[in-house]
Amino acid sequence: PMIIASSKTLLLFSVCTLLFGVVVLAQEKPFLWQPEVDLNYQLDAHWNFNFQTSFRSTWDFELQTFDTEIQGNHIQFSGRVNYRNDFDHHIGIGFMYRINRLGGRPNLNEYRLTETYSIDNRYPTFRIGHRFMADQRFFPNRTVWRFRYRPSIDFPWNGDRVDPGEFYSIFSTEALLSVSEDRKPLWDQRFTAVVGNKIGQNTNLQLGLEYRTEGYNIGLLQRFFMYTRLIYSIR
How far apart are CA 103 and CA 225, in angstroms? Predict the structure, then answer.
């Protein structure tokens, strides 16, 4: 059964990746790929710790010559501690360090602090979440304050819970406001779709596709992301 589940997982992820590639080629715009590895530690019913590392790169396709240019963007490391009460309310604090100087890029490295408040509303076959987050992004020459709100829905494909070998989906959208002393406020919007599979008792594999509109109040910038995420949980 595990071999069959693994084969289905690989097949679905391959199809989703191919479809996303077709969309990207149709848009004739570079897209960004970000593989991530997460380690979750559940201390007890209330406390959870998360550690993550990820790498982001830009893939630029030339349709006429079928050339592909790949450029590394950044490597980042982050950690978070979360507390959940008995009513599915979460509060959390976290940190992140991002190395932006890859491949001779002039971008400045970034250190970030985050504060989060989340609410989960559980129903028999799905869950609706609301996340409110504040970021303080520290660069060597300036600080950016960012405020975020993300509603989401997730559900298993079969039954009312996700068992090993089964799939699930997550859909979300997020609004972001960035404020700093030396620049105009920026409004961003993100739309994300995720397909995941519980490949083991403590391991999840996810493929996410994301469309971003950045700074749409001063001039629209569109970007397409693909995320591959491996999550391992310790209980």
Answer: 20
Measured over the CA atoms of residue 99, residue 147, residue 194 and residue 95, the dihedral's sign is positive
Residue 164's contacts (CB-CB under 8 Å, 6 or more residues apart) are 2, 5, 198, 199, 200, 201
Q: Which two tokens stand for residue 159?
A: 């039954």
Q: What is the C-alpha to C-alpha distance for residues 148 and 177, in angstroms, rounded to an integer?
A: 7
Torsion, Cα of 91, 56, 20, 50 (10° steps): -30
pTM of the model: 0.84
> What is the per-residue pLDDT across 98-134, written as a single tens digit (0 to 9) for each?
998 776 667 789 999 999 999 999 999 899 999 999 9
Q: Could you tell me which of 62, 67, 28 has the C-alpha nearest to residue 224?
A: 28
Task: List the structure tokens of 77.
Answer: 């490391």
